[in-house]
Amino acid sequence: MARRVVITGLGVLAPGGIGTRDFWSLLSSGRTATRGITRFDPSGFRTKVAAEADFDPLLHGLTPQEVQRMDRAAQFGVVAAREALADSGLDLAALDPHRTGVSVGTAVGAIGGLDRAYRVAGDDGRLAQVDHTRAPEHLYEQFVPSSFAAELAWTASAEGPATVVSTGCTSGIDAVAHAADLIREGVADIMVTGATDAPITPLVLAGFDAVKATTSYDDRPEAASRPFDATRKGFVLGEGAAVFVLEELESARRRGAHLYAEIAGHASRSSAHHMTGLRPDGRELAEAVTVALDEARLCPSDLDYVNAHGSGTRQNDRHETAAYKLALGRHAYRTPISSVKSMIGHSLGSIGSMEIAASVLAMEHHVVPPTANLRTRDPECDLDYVPLVARDHRTDAVLTVGSGFGGFQSAMVLARPDRRTA
């Protein structure tokens, strides 16, 4: 029989606050962290707003040597991992390091560090070929996303499996799913897992500008992210990390760990259709939801809340709405659904893990976070998308989903361990 996997530690670094407590305070209050971009001059771009994290690496426990070595996204991941490990109450020295592993998701890796390094080595584009003598000492570590897994492994003293999962905007779900599978299969006992991304860079913003995926609302940054709203104009770029400690259920119970949630089921599908286009019927996302529920041994009517992908693009919001109707049937109309991207933006590869964290905290507090800025309903998005204000609601089983360019569609079901039979 496959082993059951639970979350026993949680760490978050997000726009609007560093740490799990500040993250939940922002979400439950319905506040937004979107503002004009400050990390570089955005004046030449279509989009000039983003959800930035106010992050001082030295203030949050990193050494000057770590700051020099690590890209901003790696720094996010390490700080979140330290919070998750402390929250879990694990004694790292007492663990078998070979049975402790790491699985980290990212979409764009160390894109910020690479951008800066190439600017230096290429003299801001004035050199036809980069001058290797100008390259920073740790350029290689920023070139390979595997360095993120290495940093988290060092943080957790983990000598077991170490993996990077990069499936675009579903990376944060897929990395946690991979970690859970390793425990279920008996490969590891403890997994430190989650995702991190810091994509607020000129190169990333230019890429989304080119396809007009990001918002053109610049006059009121706090209202720029409008998932499921008829007046939306695209998503808001964000950044951040969420990291979890996963354990086998019975082992966690024996040591008296706090059980946030069981990873009850998950699934991924691909549309094999188009790099940015989505099928209007939502069939592939609906299939992922159905398989995840089947693995969890839960019915649609068992779900208390759906944490939506809710990017705030017309195509995604309607595709997602259709998928819920297809997978959940009548219960789609009775289930509270919301998008936290309305408050913290879309941080690409890390957002799936940040949304898992939001789902876990919704279960912890029995509160459904709202969809901020949802004031004018799109008639084609006619489900209960919890507008503007958080809602007290008994929440024992949650579905969280992700959808990404390339046709990636992922779903995960989280439940209280006592909600399911062995």
Tally of structural domains: 2
Which CATH architecture of the largest domain?
3-Layer(aba) Sandwich
Uncertain stretches of 5 or more adjacent residues = none
The fraction of residues in strands falls at: 15-25%
In terms of quaternary structure, the protein is single chain
The helix/strand class is alpha/beta
Report Rg.
20 Å
Global mean pLDDT = 92
Helix content: 25-40%
Instruction: Enumerate how many helices there are, as a single number.
Output: 13
Secondary-structure element sequence? EEHEEHHEHHHEHEHEHEHEHEHHEEEE
Task: Write a brief structural summary.
The protein is an alpha/beta fold. The chain has 13 helices and 15 strands.
Secondary-structure topology with pairs:
Layout: E1 5-14, E2 17-18, H1 20-29, E3 34-36, E4 49-51, H2 64-69, H3 72-88, E5 100-105, H4 111-121, H5 139-143, H6 146-156, E6 162-165, H7 171-184, E7 190-197, H8 202-210, E8 240-248, H9 249-254, E9 261-270, H10 283-296, E10 305-307, H11 314-328, E11 337-338, H12 341-344, H13 351-365, E12 367-368, E13 391-392, E14 397-404, E15 408-415
Parallel strand pairs: 5-6, 5-7, 10-11, 10-14
Antiparallel strand pairs: 1-2, 1-8, 1-9, 3-4, 7-8, 9-15, 12-13, 14-15
Helix pairs in contact: 3-6, 7-13, 10-11
Walk me through the structure.
- This protein has 422 residues and is of the alpha/beta class.
- 32% of the residues lie in helices and 19% in strands.
- The strands form three sheets. Strands 1, 2, 5, 6, 7, 8, 9, 10, 11, 14 and 15 form an eleven-stranded mixed β-sheet that branches. Strands 3-4 form a two-stranded antiparallel sheet.
- Helix 7 (171-184) packs across helix 13 (351-365).
- The chain is globular.
